[in-house]
Design a protein that fits this description.
The structure holds two protein chains of two kinds. By secondary structure, chain A is of the alpha/beta class. Chain A contains nine helices and five strands; from the N terminus they run ααααβαβαβαβαβα. Chain B has an eight-stranded parallel beta barrel with strand order 6-9-10-11-13-15-18-19, surrounded by seven helices. Classes of the chains: A alpha/beta, B alpha/beta.
Chain lengths: 212, 508
């Protein structure tokens, strides 16, 4: 019943409804926050499968992911923290558009897809200096740094993040992936990245591959 | 607003062509072979020249009969569950053509003679499509006896689709067979008349000639009120003047002549003001259906049909290309898009190529996709407070958290299906994904869709009793000789030409 109501809220993008549901379940000790996150993973799997079968479209997926993200960030994660528990994640990804570039849609789409696939996403936004990526990755204990760039002019800042990591002796600690219209597999190789993806769906399978 | 209609004739030009058409009908008239039809026309004030068999249609006769023409009608599938309306503002899509060959990648020429099994597949595919609402006997079953072909086609229609069907009004015997078989299928003539199932084709021979076999068939279709497409296929420069205005005037006279006849046979008989006229290629003498001039002719005829307030039929998706190349693509879309923009109410020829002499089921499903694209274009741009969406623009633009865009907004979800045509075959993947999925071109994707449709097809159920009656009927038809037909139709030709193939009396 609880799972069904959650599913309904997620499919209908009922952010407030979902948050309240989670809140009261935790307060009444009906379901633990860790268990709720597991259920959410199952529901998002259902949403992802429908998307893959072309039964629903991008907005459906992104909207559901946004709804879930709000509940996790504002209700579930704080609750888990208070209980001193740890929740399992498929991996933590720090994501952003590199310095001098303010394009966000492609990168955000990658974020939504990764989130819907069970990853924790730290979306730093646009025009992000190299050092910010590294600080965030260190802070949250990420496994992956994902760099986006839409302009040919800004591509070189992807290289800068890798050089900055090298300079700090952190290069091997993270998988660095790059993407965006002007980039390519060859470019990724040239700058010493660990991988390149052509679109959001590819990015998910690339990260899954890199983390196994 | 909706996408603007295109016009090629000004109000004055329409009036000029109308006057010229009336003059042509009343001073030259139409050569009509059938004595009984000439007699009927004479009774209603037409002037007959017994020697030349030309019939002059006075303007009063034409105007009087035009008053009886319905401006809308519905077409129903065999079991009555599926139907659609044709009217003077509709945009319906259908097949039609004369394909005697079918695309076959396993053949060294990529094409072979079409067979009954191909015809069945085509009917099944149309049944499963979203936008193409009608199939016709167009994929020619070369392995079926010619004189019984219509009976076999009717049988396959009821066995394989829930959509209406169409056939040529080729003679009174065959037309009556189709009506009789349709009546068996739908449970009686009354039901058939109330809810028409069949689209008939009446093609005058340009210039200005109605062969006996065609008027024989038209009289039967009109009697049972099955909608008939009156559509000359005149070629500018050979069977009509090279000037498009001349062709449109001549074919308008032919079409109006056919429409007048249908009303005299049975007042209120539903008809389409049709065209499938094109130009003569000045290098080869061949017809050029995919030409831009065809689209201009179609546009002019659409205007004339509206002038007379009669639903129009015109061709789209037509090409002279013999393969799946760019010519095939741009001629298809140029004729389809312009026909739709011209306001043609029933756009035909989906699935064909090579001047409609060849069929490809792959093209048929692509044409269904194109029909979706065209419909979206016609819908234009809706402007209101909600679609302008000032609120949502402000919300997304001023959002503080990273990751805000329109994709995850309810406004997008609520409007996307109305605003955006979401294609099924058109590829929009990035190169890597496209490569991973097999680097497919649209023909390959279309073939997969055809295979999927055919593998999952569930035929409609028909009662054993109806099935037995139809089989019995086919037997009766098969027993007839070619001579029998000739005698019954009152024709003396020893052969009939179908899509350039001469069929002699003793042949299939």
């Amino acid at each position: 019943m609880f799972e069904e109501s959650m599913k309904k809220a997620i499919l209908e993008w009922d952010e407030d409804g979902l948050k309240k549901m989670c809140q009261s379940a935790i307060e009444n000790k009906e379901v633990s926050p860790v268990k709720i996150i597991k259920l959410i993973g199952k529901i998002m799997q259902f949403v992802g499968d429908r998307f893959e079968r072309e039964e629903i479209f991008l907005p459906d997926l992104v909207g559901s992911a946004n709804t879930v993200k709000a509940a996790i960030d504002e209700v579930l994660d704080p609750a888990i923290k208070i209980m001193g528990e740890e929740r399992k994640t498929r991996g933590k990804v720090v994501l952003g558009t590199v310095e001098s570039d303010v394009h966000s849609i492609g990168k955000d789409l990658v974020g939504s897809f990764l989130f819907a696939s069970g990853f924790d996403i730290y979306n730093l936004g646009v025009d992000v200096p190299a050092i910010k990526f590294i600080e965030k990755a260190e802070e949250v204990g990420a496994q992956v740094i994902a760099l986006s760039s839409l302009l040919t002019m800004s591509m070189d800042f992807q290289r800068q993040v890798i050089q900055e990591l090298k300079g700090r002796g952190l290069r091997n600690k993270y998988k660095v992936i790059v993407g965006g219209s002007p980039t390519s597999e060859e470019w990724a190789e040239k700058i010493g990245a660990d991988g390149w993806a052509d679109d959001a769906i590819e990015a998910v399978s690339l990260i899954k591959k890199l983390l196994t | 607003m909706k996408l603007n209609r295109i016009n090629v004739l000004s109000k004055d030009e329409l009036q000029t062509i109308h006057s010229a058409t009336m003059e042509l009908l009343s001073t030259v008239g139409i050569k009509i072979d059938a004595q009984d039809t000439r007699d009927l026309l004479e009774k209603h004030g037409a002037e007959i020249d017994p020697e030349t068999t030309f019939v002059k249609f006075p303007e009063t006769l034409v105007k009087e009969q035009l008053k009886k023409v319905p401006n809308s009608f519905k077409l129903h599938g065999p079991d009555g569950t599926f139907n659609f309306e044709v009217n003077t503002t509709s945009t319906q899509f259908a097949t039609i053509g004369t394909p005697v060959k079918i695309y076959d990648p396993n053949n060294k020429n990529n094409v072979r003679k079409s067979l009954l099994e191909d015809m069945i597949k085509q009917i099944r595919v149309v049944d499963s499509l979203e936008h193409i609402n009608n199939s016709h006997v167009d994929v020619w079953p070369n392995d079926v006896k010619y004189t019984a072909l219509h009976a076999h086609a009717m049988y396959q229609w009821v066995k394989n689709t829930r959509k209406p069907y169409g056939l040529g009004c080729y003679g009174k015997v065959a037309s009556q067979d189709m009506i009789n078989m349709a009546s068996i299928i739908v449970g009686g003539e009354k039901e058939l008349i109330n809810k028409p199932r069949l689209v008939g084709f009446f093609n005058p021979t340009s210039p200005l000639h109605f062969p006996q076999i065609m008027t024989n068939g038209l009289s039967v279709f009109a009697k049972y009120k099955q909608p008939t497409i009156i559509a000359p296929e005149a070629l500018a420069g050979s069977s009509a003047p090279v000037t498009l205005a001349g062709l449109i005037t001549q074919t308008s006279a032919e079409t109006l002549g056919g429409i007048v006849l249908a009303q005299l046979y049975n007042p209120g008989a539903p008809v389409f003001f049709g065209t499938v006229s094109c130009i003569t290629d000045m290098r080869t003498g061949n017809s050029a259906l995919g030409s831009i001039e065809t689209a201009l002719i179609t546009t002019g005829v659409a205007q004339i049909a509206r002038f007379y307030n009669i639903p129009s039929r015109g061709p789209g998706s037509i090409t002279e290309s013999k393969c799946f190349d760019l010519q095939n693509g741009f001629e298809r879309l140029q004729t389809l898009m312009l026909a739709a923009q011209a306001g043609i109410n029933y756009i035909t020829c989906a699935g064909t190529y090579e001047s409609t002499l060849a069929e490809a089921l792959e093209l048929l499903v692509i044409d269904d996709e194109l029909a979706g694209v065209v419909k979206r274009a016609l819908d234009g741009i809706t402007v209101n407070e909600n679609t302008i969406g000032l609120d949502i623009i402000e919300k997304v633009a001023t959002a503080e958290k990273p990751g805000a865009n329109f994709l995850g907004e309810k406004h997008t979800r609520d409007h996307m299906k109305n605003e955006l045509y979401i294609p099924k075959l058109i590829d929009r993947n990035r190169r890597t994904t496209w490569r991973k999925k097999g680097s497919k071109d649209i023909i390959t994707t279309a073939r997969e869709k055809v295979d999927h449709i055919l593998q999952n097809f569930k035929p409609p159920e028909i009662s054993a009793e109806i099935e037995a009656q139809l089989k019995e009927y086919i037997k009766k038809v098969e027993a007839r000789s070619f001579e029998y037909y000739k005698k019954a139709e009152g024709i003396s030709t020893s052969s009939i030409s179908i899509a350039g193939t001469e069929i002699k009396a003793d042949e299939k």
